[in-house]
Structure of Enoyl-[acyl-carrier-protein] reductase [NADH]:
Amino acid sequence: TGLMNGKRGVVMGVANNRSIAWGIAKACADAGAEVALTYQNDAVKKRVEPLAAELGGIAAGQCDVNDPASIDQAFENLREEWGSIDFLVHAIAFSDRDELTGRYIDTSRDNFQRTMDISVYSLTSVMQRAESLMNDGGSVLTLTYYGAEKVMPHYNVMGVAKAALEASVRYLAVDLGVKKIRVNALSAGPIRTLAASAIGDFRYILKWNEYNAPLKKATTIEEVGDSALYLLSDLSRGVTGEVHHVDAGYHTVG
Ligand code: 0WD
């Protein structure tokens, strides 16, 4: 389809071809968008560059959200290359895997702060740079999980972070609404990715969702990509501040 014809956007958080961000980037490119991928560091770069080429040789730059100068540089590159962008996908999260198991109460202050910084504040700090690149409006999408709403085993501090991320989506939607920039989140069902492998008993959670979700299936990155197309395209021009579930319906029964 040509749903995204003429649109340019940046997708942050592709680590490999199993990443949710990759499912979204591919769906956007297949629908006619020009897509730039950013990567965290050189180790990830090696895997992302061939993927960027697969999308049609599109600009990719480093962006480590731990480092404000790196975010500055990434958006400066986009400004030079394109001048403006129409959409942005934030698919970034991090927490110490030792604390994604066992009890939430044992979360260390250090990991609490790092988790919130990388998984929550990064969306705000990225939008501080992206706002001026979205002069004709734009659509911003982040990724969240049901563990923000209900306690999921082992999700722990990441659940607290996702709750804060979803609240950030609402506050950013208000701040940026006057500029016709929309901010939404997709709440994806469990998918086996690099980040997910850090979560204790992930295989069990995956199976539990599959058996109990109304659609009796696991969520795929292609499904998330297709739902992202709606939120990133003009089809959703009346939608902002929303958390949309792509989870085979699990949130209705969980
Ligand atoms: O079941 C799942 N996999 C779900 C994931 C269900 C619902 C939501 N999500 C969310 C995640 O919490 C995250 O926000 O989707 C988003 C994307 O995660 P993913 O696709 O599951 O995981 P992955 O392919 O590992 O991509 C996340 C990437 C990092 O990968 P690794 O695993 O190497 O940490 O986020 C990036 C990094 O590439 N990332 C950063 N990027 C820039 N700066 C940083 C950073 N400091 N830290 C992590």
User: Anything to note?
Assistant: Residues 13, 15, 19-21, 40, 44, 63-66, 91-94, 118, 143-145, 188, 190-191, 193-196 surround 0WD (CB under 6 Å). Residues 176 and 223 are 27 Å apart (CA to CA). The helical segments are 20-30, 42-54, 68-82, 109-130, 156-177, 202-212, 221-232.
